[in-house]
Design brief:
Layout lengths: L1 H16 L3 H10 L13 H8 L1 H23 L3 H16 L12 H14 L4 H19 L2 H19 L3 H17 L1 H9 L10
Helix pairs in contact: 1-4, 1-5, 2-3, 2-4, 3-4, 4-5, 4-6, 5-6, 5-9, 6-7, 7-8, 8-9
Length: 204
């Protein structure tokens, strides 16, 4: 029975993670396929750059929410199910079955995962969510690079997790996600090193 629950957590997490909100909002409200514009990425940053501030914020919030809700649901099943679901949401977001397996970079979904586990599993909201999101926002404010801020903010969650809570599965899940996020941003890192990475402007 436990194996079935874990399998369902993976499947549901992946399917929900695959919902491409950036693509949906772009096509429904702006008659625009953002995969054909900007970076082509199905994430909040590109949505904001192509469609405007309101669309960008909406996409970010919806991507956070899709991770938050399914992880919250499976936290009622078991910690293992919630963690596997969280990992699957991030994979689904990056490789969505509903958008030819070309999606975003799992930043907003990771913060949705962090929010859910901080509230419903570890009960360490300050360290498990506020610290990483604050580091992300501070880095973004200073550098204006969403990619760099994402890597720093999400990577910081590994250290806070190992330090503040005892569930090793959660800590290692964050390590896996951080490595995944860094890999998804490898081209951004190269552009930053070359000095031609675009800075975010639409949040002003």
């Amino acid at each position: 029975m436990q194996i079935i629950k874990l399998f369902l957590a993976v499947v549901v997490g992946y399917v929900i993670g695959s919902i491409p909100w950036a693509l949906i909002i772009g096509k429904v409200f702006y008659k625009t396929d953002i995969r054909q514009h900007g970076s082509g990425n199905l994430g909040g940053t590109n949505a904001g750059r192509v469609l405007g501030k309101k669309a960008g914020i909406a996409v970010i919030l919806l991507d956070v929410l899709k991770a938050f809700l399914v992880v919250f649901f499976f936290s009622k099943v078991s910690v293992d199910a919630a963690v596997l679901c969280g990992l699957s949401v991030c994979v689904g977001h990056c490789f969505p079955i509903f958008a030819d397996f070309k999606g975003g970079k799992a930043v907003a979904t990771t913060f949705g995962y962090l929010l859910a586990i901080s509230l419903f599993i570890t009960h360490e909201f300050a360290f498990m969510f506020l610290v990483p999101i604050s580091i992300f926002l501070a880095t973004l404010a200073i550098t204006k690079y969403v990619s760099f801020a994402s890597i720093i903010g999400i990577s910081s969650s590994i250290f806070t997790s190992f330090y503040i809570q005892k569930n090793i599965l959660i800590s290692y899940s964050l390590l896996i996600i951080a490595i995944f996020v860094i890999y998804r941003h490898k081209d951004n890192v190269v552009r930053i090193l070359k000095g031609n990475e675009k800075k975010i402007t639409w949040l002003k």
